[in-house]
């Protein structure tokens, strides 16, 4: 979509000039006075305002003051007939970004607009990145007590102050992004943007534009120059998640960026220096990807300067009680619940389970359990069958006892799911209601699930 420019001037001929000069590249929204300009600003998503200073009734200075009160982030270029230094200084103090003088040259107007839109987009993106980083830092943090995660924390402390490239590997859901966030938070770049790019979520034909930006006219929908993620992250860190999803051509360009510390926007030959630390994340064995010609070997060595492998949850089960408390606290606040924890039997099941989805699986399950919880302690019967069955596989003893234990857990879980409705439970189990009644009595489920 074309950028929207609110053009404010009491002279119809000036508004007509704006439309003729700018309508090919921009969507022009005209306003003939300050009052209508304020109404249009509120009703539309405006990218830039061209505001005349000398207007009757409400002049440009007062209009600017009210615009900034309504939307402090709105970008405004002042337009003046004469270079009244005092008025220009007043406007700049009120938050105007630039000014041009009438009569203006079309090239000067276009250049000023393009420059300000580019700078405005960068400011907006930086505001978003900082707020996102703050939100992630408050909500997500590393929670652990295991020796292997303490080793990870010690490694982070060593690599964070450096500028070398980091490659974080590990299974899906292990917390690789948290490690990357912690590296940025502890780095000397923490006051600058952290730009996160999910390489797998961007269409291959757009990935280079997303990373390196593009010039106006570089392709059909490129109505204006766009800043890429590397420029947005200037001075900070760029996190390339699922790095193996990058097409080979984009891998070549990334390799050049790492070598030369500069980027070229799509459609340009100009090299733009960038000061960015690169942190890459993958859940795929890059050596295998290299051997299969899916990933460049030279790029692999460029990325693998400081490798960090995050262990799966099954190798650090001592972290599970801490993670359970952490997630219960978060989801209690979110759902307005007061779940105190897991019953001893439920926690035993958690400790026996191998968590193939790692911490993410644990997090998602606890959110579900908190939302559905009706007691202060989550009972074993509320757990999914796959977690319950894991405990059965850990048992030792006669087959009859193991079968009885499984039936107790399984039937109890179905009763919990149906809120004690025996008719529905019998249907789900595929047994007669009288058979269910006998099982409930035999297994001692009658009191809690009657």
Q: Could you characterize the architecture of this molecule?
A:
- There is one protein chain.
- The chain has 450 residues and is an alpha/beta fold.
- It is built from 20 helices and 14 strands.
- The strands form four sheets. It has a five-stranded parallel sheet, with helices on both faces. Strands 7-8-11-6-12 form a five-stranded parallel sheet.
- Helix 1 links the parallel strand 1 and strand 2 (27-31).
- Helix 13 packs across helix 15.
- The model has no long low-confidence stretch (mean pLDDT 87).
Main-sheet strand order equals 2-1-3-4-5
Gap from first CA to last CA: 61 Å
Question: Which homologous superfamily in CATH is the superfamily of the largest domain?
Answer: P-loop containing nucleotide triphosphate hydrolases
| Main β sheet profile | 5 strands, parallel
Give the overall shape: elongated
- At CATH level 2, the architecture of the largest domain is 3-Layer(aba) Sandwich
How many separate domains? 3
CATH topology of the largest domain: Rossmann fold
Q: Which parts are unreliable, with pLDDT below 50 for 5 consecutive residues or more?
A: none
DSSP strand count = 14
Query: What would you report as the Rg, rounded to the nearest angstrom?
Result: 30 Å
CATH class of the largest domain: Alpha Beta
Provide the β-strand percentage band. Answer: 5-15%
Quickly give the structural class: alpha/beta
Q: What average pLDDT do the residues reach?
A: 87
> Percent range for helical residues?
40-55%
Our count of helices gives 20
């Amino acid at each position: 979509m074309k950028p929207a420019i609110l053009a404010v001037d009491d002279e119809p001929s000036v508004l007509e000039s704006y439309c003729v000069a700018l309508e090919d590249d921009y969507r022009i929204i005209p306003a003939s006075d300050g009052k209508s300009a304020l109404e249009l600003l509120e009703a539309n998503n405006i990218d830039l305002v061209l505001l005349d200073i000398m207007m009757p009734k409400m002049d440009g200075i007062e209009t600017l003051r009210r615009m900034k009160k309504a939307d402090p982030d709105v970008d405004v270029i002042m337009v003046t007939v004469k270079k009244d230094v005092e008025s220009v200084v007043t406007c700049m103090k009120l938050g105007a970004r630039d000014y041009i003088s009438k009569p203006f040259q079309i090239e000067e107007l276009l250049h000023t607009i393009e420059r300000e839109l580019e700078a405005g987009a960068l400011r907006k993106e930086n505001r978003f990145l900082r707020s996102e980083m703050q939100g992630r830092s408050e909500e997500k943090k590393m929670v652990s007590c295991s020796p292997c995660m303490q080793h990870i924390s010690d490694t982070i402390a060593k690599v964070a102050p450096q500028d070398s490239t980091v490659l974080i590997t590990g299974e899906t859901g292990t917390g690789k992004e948290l490690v990357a966030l912690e590296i940025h938070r502890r780095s000397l770049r923490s006051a600058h943007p952290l730009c996160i790019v999910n390489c797998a979520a961007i269409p291959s034909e757009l990935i280079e534009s997303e990373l390196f930006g593009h010039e106006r006219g570089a392709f059909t929908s490129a109505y204006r120059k766009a800043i890429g993620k590397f420029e947005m992250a200037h001075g900070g860190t760029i996190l390339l998640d699922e790095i193996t999803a990058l097409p080979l051509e984009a891998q070549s360009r990334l390799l050049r960026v790492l070598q030369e510390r500069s980027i070229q926007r799509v459609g340009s030959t100009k090299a733009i220096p960038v000061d960015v630390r690169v942190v890459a994340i993958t859940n795929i064995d890059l050596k295998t990807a290299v051997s299969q010609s899916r990933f460049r070997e030279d790029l692999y060595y460029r990325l693998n300067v400081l490798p960090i492998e995050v262990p799966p949850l099954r190798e650090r089960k001592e972290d599970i009680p801490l993670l359970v408390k952490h997630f219960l606290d978060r989801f209690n606040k979110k759902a307005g619940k007061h779940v105190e924890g897991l019953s001893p039997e439920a926690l035993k099941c958690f400790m026996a389970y191998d968590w193939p989805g790692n911490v993410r699986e644990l997090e998602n399950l606890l959110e579900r359990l908190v939302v559905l919880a009706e007691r202060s302690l989550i009972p074993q019967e509320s757990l999914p069958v796959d977690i319950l069955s894991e405990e059965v596989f850990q048992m030792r003893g006669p087959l009859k006892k193991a079968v009885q234990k499984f039936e107790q857990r399984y039937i109890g879980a179905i009763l919990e799911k149906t809120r004690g409705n025996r008719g529905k439970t019998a249907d789900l189990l595929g047994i007669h209601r009288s058979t269910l009644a006998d099982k409930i009595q035999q297994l001692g489920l009658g009191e809690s699930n009657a």
